[in-house]
Specification:
eight-stranded antiparallel sheet; Uridine Diphospho-n-acetylenolpyruvylglucosamine Reductase, domain 2; Uridine Diphospho-n-acetylenolpyruvylglucosamine Reductase, domain 3; 19% strand; Vanillyl-alcohol Oxidase, Chain A, domain 3; flavoprotein; 15 helices; alpha+beta
């Protein structure tokens, strides 16, 4: 939208009046900062940024946007690095930064182990508060930025590594401002009462479960969410196994599966390749020799593994228990399990604390926010970073076939195959990192082409992505069946008849 259009000016005047001093920002520096991202498609400058301080403020902004037909793009903390950061899906939208002023922990119930948060509450802020209260409860963290928003990550189907890894699944009870400006409360919050006991403890209340409508959609602005917490165990012990060969992934997946199907191992497994672990420790030693046009050599990868003490694949998990001694028999059982073929080299918890990339895994299993994996932004100069997030069934041969496929596509595009498979019982998500020089136009184009080809090839084999960078949301929606697209469009039309809330986000448009 042209920032000089009268309807935008009228909207911003109304927003300024509703929000008070500092509630609207249109400075060139601010617009540039909110428009930038790490993706190959380029930055997307907003028309303005507004900073609500309450649910009532959000209602006022949404109602004004309806009157003046101004598109809004809500964000929480804007730390969705590799998927879009603060950048909207289209230029000229007005970014609604919910995290700047709506950053309160509204409640922590230590008896029932849950918290209630506004969009601006980060993993670091929640961790710090739990420590202040005695560290009796533990949150599930991502291995991304500690300043990432808990609410925003859950709504984008983000995940962690502890038994509470499913952030949307372990959320309970929302307050939502609909595109009309009305307030919706989900779950027990829908009860017509001012005193609701089970809003953030009971997920399955009377009537349709509407919470899912607001995950990866543009159907409403969530201003409050309950998040379940885990009692912190007295002892946490990690275990790690290093494998030497790329094709060992088949054995690894088949060994992880029964341990998760039985829930013997309570955490998810991090099955991480060498570049995912070592790439956070500095720039590729080979990048400048080919000007970024070739993938790192096998010799270069081996040198990194030897330097950091990891494998072509490194498996990480953890046990919780009453004491280290109580956990030790479980460690011995898992060592025996992974030691069957003789391929795995065991790395103890104590050894892992001395290996920086494995300390990141220990932090994740312990609910401690960490900056470690942000080092992947420096693997190639120029700060380019995009995530490709498909999932595969927990069948070793299938996972290995996908590993070979994607590794080949990376190499075809002169990029470095960088991936962590996060493994549950039946499904693993492949966190593929595309690192590239965003200041090099040709390399940017290769990164975008690499992403698209992988997405096309895995879809041909019946695999879809779980999350998407803003560059590719329209593309991924086009991969769905017509009835799915039609249903999304019909819901959008019903809830947002004026199309003011993030039009096109996740590829959803009014029907």
């Amino acid at each position: 939208m042209d920032s000089g259009q009268p309807n935008l000016e009228a909207f911003l005047a109304e927003a300024d009046k509703a929000l008070g001093s500092g509630g609207v920002n249109r400075s060139e520096e601010t617009l540039r900062r909110y428009g930038e991202n790490t993706l190959p498609g380029g930055d997307r400058l907003p028309a303005a940024v507004v900073y609500p301080g309450s649910t009532a403020d959000v209602q006022a902004i949404v109602r004004a946007a309806n009157v003046h037909r101004v598109p809004l793009y809500p964000i929480s903390t804007g730390n969705n690095i590799g998927l879009g950061s603060r950048s909207s899906n289209a230029t000229g939208q007005v970014v609604v930064d919910l995290g700047r002023r709506m950053n309160r922990i509204l409640e922590i119930d230590e008896t029932l182990a849950y918290a209630v948060v506004e969009p601006g509450v980060s993993y670091q802020a929640m961790y710090d508060e739990l420590v202040r209260r005695g560290n009796r409860l533990m949150l599930d963290v991502t291995s991304g930025p500690p300043q990432g928003g808990m609410l925003g990550n859950a709504l984008d189907k983000g995940a962690g590594y502890t038994p509470y890894f499913d952030h949307f699944g372990f959320a309970c009870g929302m307050e939502v401002v609909l595109p009309t400006g009305e307030i919706l409360r989900t779950g027990d919050g829908a009860l017509d009462s001012t005193d609701i006991s089970n809003w953030h403890t009971s997920k399955y209340s009377f009537g349709p479960i509407l919470d899912g409508l607001f995950a990866q959609s543009n159907y409403g602005i969530v201003t409050r969410m309950g998040i379940w917490l885990l009692p912190r165990p007295p002892a946490i012990r990690s275990f790690h196994f290093a494998y030497d060969n790329d094709d060992d992934l088949e054995e690894i997946i088949d060994l992880c599966r029964p341990l998760k199907l039985s829930n013997f191992v309570p955490t998810l497994f991090r099955v991480t390749n060498d570049l995912y672990l070592c790439g956070s420790e500095g720039e590729s030693a080979e990048y400048r020799t080919s000007a970024g046009r070739r993938s790192i050599s096998d010799e270069g990868r081996r040198a990194l593994r030897e330097k950091h003490g990891v494998g072509a694949w490194t498996v990480s998990g953890a046990f919780y228990g009453a004491s280290d001694a109580a956990i030790e028999p479980m460690i011995q059982r898992v060592r025996s399990h992974f030691g069957q073929s003789g391929k795995a080299r065991y790395i103890s918890h104590e050894e892992a604390t001395e290996i920086a990339p494995l300390q990141v895994a220990i932090n994740a299993f312990s609910g401690v926010p960490s900056l470690g994996e942000l080092g992947l932004l420096k693997w190639r100069p120029g700060g380019g970073n995009s995530w490709f997030l498909p999932g595969t069934p927990m069948v070793g041969k299938v996972a290995n076939d996908f590993q070979r496929l994607c590794r080949g596509i990376y190499e075809e595009h002169g990029l470095d195959y960088t991936v962590m498979n996060v493994c549950a019982a039946r499904f693993c998500r492949g966190l593929h990192v595309l690192s590239f020089n965003r200041e090099d136009e040709e390399e940017r184009e290769r990164a975008g082409s690499c992403y698209r080809k992988m997405a096309e090839e895995v879809a041909r084999r019946g695999v879809f992505v779980g999350r998407s960078p803003v560059d590719f949301q329209e593309f991924h929606m086009s991969q769905t069946i017509p009835s799915f697209r039609g249903a999304c469009a019909s819901i959008k039309q019903a809830l947002d008849p004026n199309g003011i809330l993030a039009p096109g986000r996740y590829g959803i448009h009014a029907g």
